[in-house]
């Protein structure tokens, strides 16, 4: 664990080991929440640099972060709209266009900033890139996003499940575009039993859309053979007539996750006001755009597992360190303002020293 001198990062990536950041290429998550370059000074940073200087300042840190990252790691850069599009171009240059994962929208101010000139800004940008897109390890979902109410049925083992159409509901996929995904299955609508081969009491079932035009299955025939026990057939009475359709029993099992949307709402991850309240409860004030703990926990949970190394190159109020510690990750945060280190970060972590 370390809180170091961030000013030296601009000199050379080779200094990182001297700062205690560990061997190069071992960081699973690098997080940057730099000054947004909107003017003024705060928390020891000059936030009114000429654009070319500010971009050079950011680029040096992106290069340093790339050297820190493991092949499986990701970098997350948090900005608002003022410079985000330019920084995304830098990310393309430093990490490669193919390394892009997502450009997330994070609701930071649900009420909207009413003093903004035209529209009441209410969001930040969170850009995510891979160190190596072929080896990256990243969960796009979390267990908390799964709603048990979406699984209303209960099987004989007491596990909740839902029924998903085996038919591909996207009309772009049809017998003309994907002919190998059209094949007959056989089912008994009275019992719900499904088979891949004909049998007594079973009728042939081909995939059709609701208007009875030909469709295709989501599974190949080989996959249907392997997982036929997960299938059930039912009689469906639609506006275009009666048909027999096949469904997959989709079980709500322990450890199941759901992919997150690319818009993260404040009720899920907190807001700037949430973060300020958290800091006030810790006896800290004076930060203009702190990040809420729920947001940092989500980022860390998505991109790391316990004992992975998390690095924050702009520690600020220390929320990344708090979240990483609570989640059992190893962490390093870098902050150039010694007063912030002494008066904010170390007390929040229950540490002493410099």
UniProtKB/TrEMBL annotation:
Every DNA methylase N-4/N-6 domain range: 28-342
EC category: transferase
GO molecular function: methyltransferase activity
Matching SUPFAM superfamilies: S-adenosyl-L-methionine-dependent methyltransferases (SSF53335)
GO annotation, biological process: methylation
Keyword Methyltransferase included in the entry's annotation: yes
Annotated keywords: Methyltransferase, S-adenosyl-L-methionine, Transferase
Enzyme Commission number(s): 2.1.1.-
Name the record gives this protein: Site-specific DNA-methyltransferase
Organism from which the protein derives: Dietzia aurantiaca
Lineage: Bacteria, Bacillati, Actinomycetota, Actinomycetes, Mycobacteriales
């Amino acid at each position: 664990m370390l809180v170091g001198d961030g000013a030296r990062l601009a000199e050379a990536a080779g200094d990182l080991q001297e700062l205690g950041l560990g061997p190069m290429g071992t960081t699973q998550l690098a997080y940057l929440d730099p000054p947004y370059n909107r003017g003024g000074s705060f928390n020891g940073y000059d936030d009114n640099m000429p654009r070319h200087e500010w971009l050079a300042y950011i680029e040096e840190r992106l290069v340093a972060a790339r050297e820190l990252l493991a092949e499986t790691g990701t970098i997350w850069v948090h900005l608002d709209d003022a410079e985000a599009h330019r920084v995304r171009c830098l990310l393309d240059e430093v990490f490669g266009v193919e390394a892009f994962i997502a450009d997330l929208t994070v609701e930071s101010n649900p009420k909207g900033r009413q003093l903004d000139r035209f529209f009441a800004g209410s969001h930040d940008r969170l850009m995510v890139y891979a160190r190596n897109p072929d080896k990256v390890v990243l969960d796009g979902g979390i267990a908390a996003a799964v709603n048990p109410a979406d699984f209303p049925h209960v099987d004989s083992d007491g596990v909740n499940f839902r029924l998903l159409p085996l038919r591909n509901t996207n009309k772009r996929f049809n017998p003309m575009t994907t002919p190998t995904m059209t094949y007959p299955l056989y089912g008994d609508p009275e019992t719900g039993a499904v088979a891949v081969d004909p049998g007594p009491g079973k009728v042939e079932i081909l995939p059709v859309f609701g208007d009875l035009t030909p469709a295709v299955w989501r599974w190949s025939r080989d996959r249907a053979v392997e997982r036929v026990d997960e299938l059930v057939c039912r009689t469906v009475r639609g506006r275009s007539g009666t048909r027999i359709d096949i469904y997959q029993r989709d079980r709500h099992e322990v450890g199941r996750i759901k992919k997150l949307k690319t818009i993260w709402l404040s009720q899920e991850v907190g807001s700037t006001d949430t973060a300020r309240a958290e800091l006030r409860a810790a006896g800290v004030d004076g930060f203009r755009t702190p990040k809420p703990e729920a947001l940092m926990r989500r980022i860390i949970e998505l991109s790391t597992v316990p004992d992975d190394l998390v690095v924050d190159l702009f520690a600020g109020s220390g929320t990344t360190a708090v979240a990483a510690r609570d989640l059992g990750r190893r962490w390093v945060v870098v902050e150039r303002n010694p007063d912030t280190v002494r008066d904010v970060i170390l007390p929040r972590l229950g540490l002493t020293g410099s």
